[in-house]
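fwd from M.: "can u put these together and see what the complex looks like"

so here's what she sent:
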Amino acid sequence: MNDTTQRYAPGEHPDMAPPATAVGAIGWMRQNLFSSPLNVALTLIGLYLLWLTVPPVVDWVFLNADWVGTDRETCTSGGACWVFINMRLDQFMYGFYPSEQRWRVDIAFVIFASCIVWLLIPRLPAKNKVGIFALFIYPIIAFFLLSGGSFGLEHVETPKWGGLMLTLVIAVVGIVASLPIGVVLALGRRSNMPIVRSICVTFIEFWRGVPLITVLFMASVMFPLFMPEGVNFDKLLRALIGVMLFSSAYMAEVIRGGLQAIPKGQYEAAEALGLGYWKMMYLIILPQALKLVIPGIVNTFIGLFKDTTLVLIIGLFDFLGIVQAAATDPKWLGYSVEGYVFCAFVYWCFCFSMSRYSIHLENKLHTGHKR
Amino acid sequence: MQTDPSKMTAPAKPPIWNDPVYRGIFFQVLVLGAVVLFGLSIFDNTTANLERQGIASGFGFMESTAGFGIITHLVEYSEESSYGRAFLVGLFNTLLVSLIGIVLATVLGLLVGVARLSKNWLISKMATIYIEVIRNIPLLLQIFFWYFAVLRSVPAPRDSVVLADAFFLNNRGLYSPAPIFESGFSAILIALLVGIVTVFFLSRWARRRQEATGQPFHTVYVSLAILIGLPLLAALGTGMPLSWEYPELKGFNFVGGLVMIPEFVALLLALSIYTAAFIAEIVRAGIQAVNHGQTEAAYSLGIRPGVTLRLVILPQALRVIIPPLTSQYLNLAKNSSLAAAIAYPDLVSVFAGTVLNQTGQAVEVIAITMAVYLTLSLTISLFMNWYNDKMALVER
């Protein structure tokens, strides 16, 4: 009762604490989970769905799973049998690559990974040199390392390549080869020479209009017919050419987007300086355009990385192919779910981190031009 | 220093190899020559190779007997049918799975996209997780998962999962009742047709009246009433000329009814769940692309939330949504070719797989297959361009 009679000087009245239902955990829940009858119902449905899915999955993956052992006899708990993955991990990574030669794959991968890490960390110097090394010199080194046949390295035929290694080889070759082809096609599509333009448009629209799987079928059954008699090249190379043609068409469209985003003034300024076409492109337009489309290139790469799984249809054992083959092995019959889950997890890690990186780049590269 | 203008000569013409016009022509001729030469050498090699292998080229093989069975076909087909018929079966199966997939993916994608924008934290997080998980796992892996892991573990026909005594799920497929159209069913179809035409003219009349007088008309409710009511009346009038044939367990398998084979179910599930994740992102981006000021302006004019969404937000969001949505539909149709991996008899699996292996006509078969997909893509992108032009913002 005293409170009501107490007087404050103007401006000295103490602030009242906010009601307990408007702040803290309760306030947050009221605002984000239970703000209206509809939201209450939705929250309850959501919780029910989580209750239905999460506990059994956690149980299966972690709590009830078998982790150690050497054969299927050890998988008795009824949960996931990770022993299967454990025993087959080497094969999943390297395919049928001879085990005493696998250090070569490791070295190739380590060089590749360190190049990528070097390029991704902004503080490290000499990005251009590392980039040129990764784009032009590394593929040659990797080829000699993986294929062998010279420098005293034993030759390993491509049918023995497989697993994650093959997936990475196809994806990286596809993207590295499709970049220059894509640039040329994109420039051709924006050229004002009608014949060059129509050839590029036809090429791009053709490959973009057909599914990758028909391209791979074509690569595996038609390419041998295209070659002169006696010339034959192996299945992996044919698949690589198919993937390359396919992804360069998509790459061309991504790069064309970048070229279109460069204001006309840049072209005019370059011409006013007296630069010829190639100098204008090389010095002024392409550096800006390519910078703009790096996120798009990363997205194309993600798509390509997922699409490499299709090569299993023409009989190459990529990562998914080898997991699929292992799941039909009579010794481990019935553990296909473990195989798929592991496979999905690996693909997800690759693709998710790349898509995060692409979003990060998109935010970082917003330095103008945005209209 | 002054020069007499009359003595000025035109600047010296550049030598012909520096003239852009001639250079352009020269380069184009060069490129064209290279392409033609490349094409010719491929053509030469191919004909030589085919001759050596004793394969007759041409499309004559389409007439000969296929001699293999196809488990599911929408058009009449038997082992005595021709390869051309097999092609049709494959094409229709591709179209079937694509069309149903597009419908399912759109519905699911729309739901998830709206859920992702929901103010409800739990719902929006669940939608985000769905999108991020599904988008980043290869489609082929998802097809394998549904086919080999999920659908292989459903019970045998004897212990089917039963839903409402009409739907049976077992390892032979999903069985559902089949409609049987009796005589007089055409009356219902005619009624439906009349309803559609009426609704078309009604909505035109209502729009004109609203533009002229400002009086709104409950077009949606009236149209719904007409569309449902007229066929219903016809059905009652003709004494319900539609009955259902229920699947029955006879021996080891079900007989009668409609059956969806497991390959179809797996492919459909994987395709629609995968594409829905992309559609959800497109829907979200489209709705977010509409300036928030539009919503506020509509509210300040006293327009209610539902009407705002329908008349203000969605028309503007659709302009952003439709182009990428069409390309997702196209992707779904192209991705349906992954059916070859689980032997669902689609175009690629039947035609570029079995027919190619049997006839060895690689060039013709692959060319036809690619031509089908190419026609599909070009048709859809032509339609998309037309739609874009129609919907493009007309600036005053």
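replying to her w this: The first helix of chain A runs from residue 2 to 5.
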